[in-house]
Amino acid sequence: MFKKVLIANRGEIALRIHRACKEMGIQTVVVHSTADANSMAVRLADESVCIGGPAAKDSYLNIHSILSAASLTHADAIHPGYGFLSENAEFVRMSEEHGFTFIGPKAEHIDTMGDKVMAKKTVTALGIPVVPGSDGAVEDMESGRKTAIEMGFPIIIKAAHGGGGRGMKVVTRAEDFAEAYSTARSEAKANFGDDTVYMEKFLQKPRHIEIQVFGDKHGNAVHLGERDCSLQRRHQKVLEEAPSPALTEEEREHIGALTAKAVRDMGYVGAGTVEYLYEDGKFYFMEMNTRIQVEHPVTEMITGYDLIAEQIRVAAGLPLTLKKERIRFRGHAIEVRINAEDPDTFVPSPGEITQFHAAGGLGVRFDSAMYNGYKIPPHYDSMIGKLIVHGRNREECIRRLRRAIMETVVEGVKTTLPLHLSIIDHPDFQSGDYTIHWLEQQLEKNQSEK
Fold it and tell me: Are 21 and 99 contained in the same domain?
């Protein structure tokens, strides 16, 4: 087992990894930017190293600085968390070349799944269903328009190397294709350095279902059930729950077993999430995230397993402690992402937290790096915490979540807590009747009524 792990991230995930390491008897090194010098993870880590200025490119995306910090502190392994360099295959290769174990999958799998066109071809060969679409990249506007007409509108254009909703454009009419194609390519180039795009049939009322998977270096692979991530704004997840209120037990077992087999056949190592669109009883592959997810606590709450600790054990060469016959799903869990944003306009609200109180009680978990007096920097993602609640069933879970939201105090900045309260109080959410388009439709409706 590792003696010392360097955590190449910030915020709540850096603190989450630190906690798992300490419980395993592993020392931690936290790297940080000048803007994060007073973060909770830096305060609690055994060692900390400043690696650059506030801009991510100067710090959390600076591979050479991170590897230098790992060398100086004699770390054995590097945990990338999520975001930043977590899905950067070159970072994996360079880490290994310098003698550090990367706590994550192989570089080849990050490369394959990072290219959305190649990912679709790979999973198709493994027996996973995909959304009907273009046969690879769309090379030019005219051929793309012709293919779109043959597929039938609406269609969606996506960046081949993208994610997070950037480089994505929905097209409902042939006459709008040229502008959407040009815009998608420009956004893809600006955000990902590559303007390659592909097309898929745009599903009208899908849900976003993802399967948590794990593989080890001994050829073992398992799934830990699904998470329903259909509540989204601009393709960004807002609330996640498990199990999905939309799936039957037969559907759950089918897609879980199919996904686990594909991961096993790939020889995948570590934590991963295979994401699907689900509509009318059918699943369609979207992408695979080759890292731990923001919403991993939802799975931890219903299974009782520490997924970060399992990542570390697998990276150290140990076999999975997760065994299919031992995994049991208990009750229901929901996570809400708390962002430092205006709940109506979604304008970021960085600043000093003047008062903070985390909700508590039976079945309540609060993952955050906040504290009284903490200054939220304006340089990074606006998520400042995650409130995760578990109940014996979905109804109890929703009631407990409502109580926990009302109990949570974050003053000094605006947060999205009021938005979450309005979501869980809505009859559609309480009945489980929502799709990936539901939240944006509700927000538009609310704006038009004001």
Answer: yes
What's the token pair of residue 84? 């930043």
Strand 4-7 with 77-79, pairing: parallel
Residues 220 and 296 reside in one and the same domain: yes
Structural domain harbouring 151? 132-201
Q: Residue 143 maps to which CATH number?
A: 3.30.1490.20
Is residue 156 within 8 A of residue 138, CB to CB? The reply is: no
201-244: pLDDT as tens digits: 889 899 999 999 999 999 999 999 999 999 999 989 999 999 99
Confirm if 204 and 153 have CB atoms less than 8 A apart: no
Q: What is the pLDDT of residues 20-34, one digit of tens each?
A: 999 999 999 999 999
pTM: 0.91
| Residue 419 phi, psi (nearest 5) | -60, -45
Asked if 408 and 354 count as a contact pair (C-beta separation under 8 A), the reply is: no
In a domain, 288, yes or no: yes
Catalytic residue ranges:
291
DSSP-assigned states of every residue in 318-334: PPPS--TTT----SEEE
The total number of structural domains in the chain stands at 3
Residues 296 and 438 occupy one common structural domain: yes
Residues near 129 by beta carbon (within 8 Å), at least 6 away in sequence: 282, 283, 284, 285
Residues 6+ apart with CB under 8 A from 344: none
